[in-house]
Amino acid sequence: MIDAQMDCQLDNVLNPELIPLRTDAERERAKPDISRLPNAIDNDGFPLFRAGEKIIIERRSTILIGSPYLDTRTYTVVSIDTESGKLDLFDDTLCQSALSNYRQGLDKGYIFKLARGNSVATKKKRGRPRKNTIEDRTETVATPTTANGQPIKKKRGRPPGTKNRDRETIKLEKKAKMSLRSERKARRRNKK
């Protein structure tokens, strides 16, 4: 009886029809968008990067039918052989060396992009986006100045005229509210 149950469980594990596979649509959704980045290979098929720079490679599976999306990785270029197209790379996230070929990779459907700055091609992260640092802001706001060239101090608080009620009605409402509070306090004291 136990052997029959084990055989049944093994059949379920080894049966490829029961194993959920990732569809091409799921793979495409998981793929990060690198279309905004500049191409790393020019129209003549020569690299636009040098050793020490970072590149992003979107790889596709060459074994599966239809060459579905495999992964997107950011690599640091260690060396380039322009005659054969071989690239010696280093993957910073996995801390391991990698090899690629930009000539054969283009034929296989690989996409080579330049990584500008410290941008790393990863999946979109959840949560709040990062705040822009002061260096990222290029626009400078002109401060208002007087006729003498002195900067005008920014007034604090609410600008006048933004409330719907005039001052007299506000004062009357405030007095009524305060008298109501004092009556309640007096009632509480009398109860004790």
Descriptive labels:
192 residues; alpha+beta; SH3 type barrels; elongated; 19% strand; 4 helices
Strand order in the largest sheet: 4-3-2-1-5
Question: What gap, in angstroms, lies between the N and C termini?
Answer: 79 Å
Largest sheet: 5 strands, antiparallel
Which stretches of 5+ consecutive residues score pLDDT under 50?
Answer: 4-10
Number of helices: 4
Written description of the protein model:
The chain is of the alpha+beta class. The protein has a domain at 34-120: SH3 type barrels, CATH 2.30.30. 27% of the residues lie in helices and 19% in strands. The chain has four helices and five strands. The termini are far apart. Residues 4-10 have low confidence and may be disordered.
List the helices and strands and how they pair.
Blueprint: H1 2-14, H2 24-30, E1 54-60, E2 69-81, E3 86-91, E4 96-101, H3 102-108, E5 111-114, H4 167-191
Antiparallel strand pairs: 1-2, 1-5, 2-3, 3-4
Quick gist of this model?
This protein has helices spanning 2-14, 24-30, 102-108, 167-191; strands spanning 54-60, 69-81, 86-91, 96-101, 111-114.
